[in-house]
């Protein structure tokens, strides 16, 4: 018996290895797609460099000293000490830029993931059950989609007690899942007509398992594409809200914090080093994420692939 | 006692209309169908597309909700059972689907597809599971390494075998086969059909065989029922139907079977025209004013036909 | 047809009611009420007196009574008092509303003026250099956050080049009604409008390009070509007729974008409109104004979405089968 098991196991490994090669995973296809598109490839490399710098450099930056106000060195222009000069509090702009990029990206990811979880749950339920359940959920989503969400986020940010980074992430994600739910639902409605879903029902698989392990894998590439594209949007929204003064709480630097200083006419016209690098960094990050996102999108649809 | 007894089964869908989307009428997809299946037999359910045969099959297994009627399986009425209690009959009734492409989840390999019901009902170790699946895969005539392949790597006939293997996993008593070969090439159809007959004895199966193809049904079934507009028009043994059809609709269906021998084709055409004429002339005796099929009336012990007031011809 | 319009309009009513309830509860969740706002920093009014006034105005009643009063007042055009400006909210909104409507209207117009020709060019000459350029522009405009773009515009064209004023809606020295006054108004509009419009073209261009490419190979177009209809006619008579109308159905979606955008644009260009008023009011905790603005914006989007659905139903009969 032992021998047989051993033999079976070996066989299994060998065959799995061979089958894996025949069936490249979605990530492999994405990578192939990125490599074959020059702009996407450059974007990808650029994004990696920016993120590595943003996540690694804070390890060497003394956060306390970056945040410390130094009244004698306000608005210094770039120098060897302060590569990108100092801001209105005499703080090092480069250090803040790195911390800000890290924070903005992390929050963007967190919001995207949370929104994906809400969107998936609601979308899968509406798409899987269809009928009256779908009808009610869609009426609610139709309503939520017409709310002026930016205004609502700002109002929530103001009235939430004990406002923190966590509550900000929660508020933002609360208003960014409607579109995703709708997308997943419409694809889910198409999937549920297919017999593999019916087969699972007749095999006694519980509904939640069918949704999660049968239907979801067939929608996963759609979700990944949507997530990469909304990631950029969420970073833009976070920095924008921080720019307006309704984003990250003071003390947590974001790219928007630096740009917000440009609301001062003197800063925008003469102290470019304070806000321009952050503005350009956002632009580059958003463009890169979008170009990579477009490559992911093509990879998910065999007809659009370049590779 | 029969294995399955379907009693006056109705599946209606509402038609909504008007300003407030109120229910205006119903589509009577299945409208009062009754039949019985004995253990070990194959019952063919035949009719043109849209006649309600698939809906009947899906209602029996619980994919469509039943508007009215009983589905008695081993003495227990499935319709009146709660969702949870019905679960224990899932193991006994299984289905083979029409489309071998959409009925297998393309994201799962064969092992995971066939093991799905095992994981729902039995707690097996991975090795036990593997052995069970391997046994089934080999029984349906696929090579052992297929279990790590994905559905798109198989032909239609092979996929349908995977679907059959999956249905067999729980050792069911009744298999509802919904047009199991109509999506396959004619050359493969016979293979799959013969295979289904082979396993019928081996696994002690009862088939409800749903098809639009009378030739195939003749090959497979012991008894059959002809459906039209959601109701049975005629029921009987294979010989009753193929040798002694009574209902004009059945006759029409039989006349529509293509003739293989060229020299007989002219005869067939004449026959077809004759049957068509009969169908038009006798229409009123077999259909009520609003086009509804009458209730079945017994002609012999095995043979019954739907006609007005049970009047013999 | 009429049935669809009626039914679609009926859907709007529960939406408006739901919106008003949500806004009402948000308003009650905001710290302070009309009384604390009105007598803030007034040492002559004791907390007991405040309480009395509260009782008198019914601020201690159950929520549904307060809600009912609030709605009926709002329907009569009474949106409460702004305590920072010491004047009725409706009066406060009036001037700003016309500014914002002007900005939004012109932005929408310019968006279409840019997007429609570009969409048509990209679709008609698919894969040409012009198409590639337009597609690139579309990628970039989709990815660019509006506030970053507006700041860069302001920095380059107002501060560096000095072509346009740095803020406001009109030169304060210009006299109302004169030619200079209108010129000044236009000059003040250029940057805010372009900052919004250049980024809002995305969905229209994307839609038009895809739709034209789709339609180009449809049978009825092939038939027209085969009959010898000149290529230009094929586009004006057959393709564009089908592709252009549905653009109107994005209206609701565009209005949402305009409302969000106006908050950024008006802040950056110090343009005295509703978006700026919203931000200022919320910073000053002037919640009567905030509530009114959220309600109005929500209602605008609800009505806009309804209009676009109706337009779409006229253009495309298929969606009427609900």
From TrEMBL, chain B:
Q: Which Pfam families match?
A: ABC_tran, oligo_HPY
Q: What sequence ranges are listed for the domain ABC transporter?
A: 4-254
Which UniProt key words apply to this protein? ATP-binding, Nucleotide-binding, Transport
Keyword ATP-binding present in the record's keywords: the answer is yes
Which GO molecular function entries does the Swiss-Prot or TrEMBL record give?
ATP binding; ATP hydrolysis activity
Supply the InterPro entries for this chain. AAA+_ATPase, ABC_transp_ATP-bind, ABC_transporter-like_ATP-bd, ABC_transporter-like_CS, Oligopep_ABC_C, P-loop_NTPase
Say which domain of life the source belongs to.
Bacteria
Single GO BP term: transmembrane transport
Q: Quote the SUPFAM superfamilies the UniProt record gives.
A: P-loop containing nucleoside triphosphate hydrolases
Concerning Gene3D superfamilies, the annotation shows: P-loop containing nucleotide triphosphate hydrolases (3.40.50.300)
The UniProt similarity line reads:
Belongs to the ABC transporter superfamily.
Q: Which PANTHER family match?
A: D,D-DIPEPTIDE TRANSPORT ATP-BINDING PROTEIN DDPF-RELATED, TRANSPORT ATP-BINDING PROTEIN
Output this protein's name: ABC transporter ATP-binding protein
Q: According to the entry, what is the taxonomic lineage of the organism?
A: Bacteria, Bacillati, Bacillota, Bacilli, Bacillales
From TrEMBL, chain C:
* Record-linked SUPFAM superfamilies: MetI-like (SSF161098)
Task: Outline the extent of the ABC transmembrane type-1 domain.
Answer: 97-308
Entry-linked CDD domains: TM_PBP2 (cd06261)
Q: Origin, by domain of life? A: Bacteria
Question: What kind of membrane protein is this, topologically?
Answer: Multi-pass membrane protein
Q: Which residues lie in coiled coils?
A: none
**InterPro entries per the record?**
BPD_transp_1_N, MetI-like, MetI-like_sf
Does the record bear Cell membrane in its keywords? Answer: yes
Q: State where the protein is found.
A: Cell membrane
**GO BP term, pick one:** transmembrane transport
Cellular component terms, GO, for this chain's entry? plasma membrane
Q: Which UniProt keywords apply?
A: Cell membrane, Membrane, Transmembrane, Transmembrane helix, Transport
Mark the transmembrane ranges. 101-122, 134-157, 189-208, 244-269, 289-315
What the record says about family reads: Belongs to the binding-protein-dependent transport system permease family.
* NCBIfam families assigned: Opp4B
Q: Which PANTHER family match?
A: DIPEPTIDE TRANSPORT SYSTEM PERMEASE PROTEIN DPPB-RELATED (PTHR43163:SF6)
The protein in question is named ABC transporter permease
* Source organism of the structure: Savagea serpentis
Recall the taxonomic lineage recorded for the source organism.
Answer: Bacteria, Bacillati, Bacillota, Bacilli, Bacillales
